[in-house]
Automatic annotation (TrEMBL):
Highest taxon of the lineage: Bacteria
Signal peptide coordinates: 1-20
Database matches in PANTHER family: LIPOPROTEIN YIAD-RELATED, STATOR ELEMENT OF FLAGELLAR MOTOR COMPLEX
Domain OmpA-like: 56-179
Species this protein is from: Sphingomicrobium sediminis
UniProt entry keywords in alphabetical sequence: Cell outer membrane, Membrane, Signal
Entry protein name: OmpA family protein
Length: 203
């Protein structure tokens, strides 16, 4: 049968293999792994875009100037310096309405304070037009009287708070219409509250 003939042949082959001495071991072949392409550690499906090289866009200017006033409506040297702190080109480059809010302290009647606040706004408007070349058509004047203070007009005992009254005698120059300004300030306050809440959670 076939398996009987194959058995001696198999023994012969095994014997020859056992008599053969192994040759000297050669150097192991260096295994070169194919280079993997570099990949970002940011997941492609995360929706994160890496910034491209190039010029960055400057944020839009937010023009707000507070001009201090004395008891009257005349521009003091400090008031002029506050306005001149901004380069004249800023006033010329910016577009849109400029709202000028006049304010007063609480001394006197409401009517008198409203007149005083509007007179201060008019004094600032004249300076912007005559000295800085701002188009008068862009100016929107609002006299708020004593109704929007930034400091207490009175002390807790009812006496005059002279430091607070001095802070309230002022003019604010703000880029935008009153509606735009209210919206912008509300968004800024909301952003500050969110940032404060996030910082509190990290503590």
């Amino acid at each position: 049968m076939m398996w009987r003939r194959a058995f001696p042949l198999t023994l012969m082959v095994l014997g020859m293999a056992a008599c053969t001495e192994p040759g000297p071991a050669g150097e192991p072949e260096e295994v070169v792994e194919p280079e993997q392409p570099l990949r970002s550690i940011i997941r492609e499906d995360a929706g994160i875009e890496l910034p491209e090289d190039g010029p960055t866009t400057e944020p839009a200017k937010v023009l707000e100037v507070t001009v201090p006033f004395g008891v009257g409506s005349g521009l003091s040297e400090a008031a002029r310096e506050a306005i001149d702190a901004f380069d004249a080109e800023v006033w010329e480059e910016e577009e849109g309405i400029i709202t000028i809010f006049g304010h007063s302290d609480s001394i006197g009647s409401d009517e008198a304070n409203e007149r005083a606040s509007l007179a201060r706004a008019e004094a600032v408007a004249d300076y912007l037009v005559e000295e800085l070349g701002v188009d008068r058509e862009r100016l929107n004047l609002v006299g708020l009287g004593e109704h929007n203070p930034v400091a207490p007009n009175l002390n807790l005992d009812g006496s005059d708070n002279q430091a607070g009254q001095a802070m309230n005698r002022r003019v604010e120059i703000v880029l935008g219409t009153p509606g735009e300004i209210v919206e912008r300030r509300a968004l800024a306050e909301q952003s500050e509250r969110l940032e404060a809440a996030e910082n509190a959670q990290e503590l």
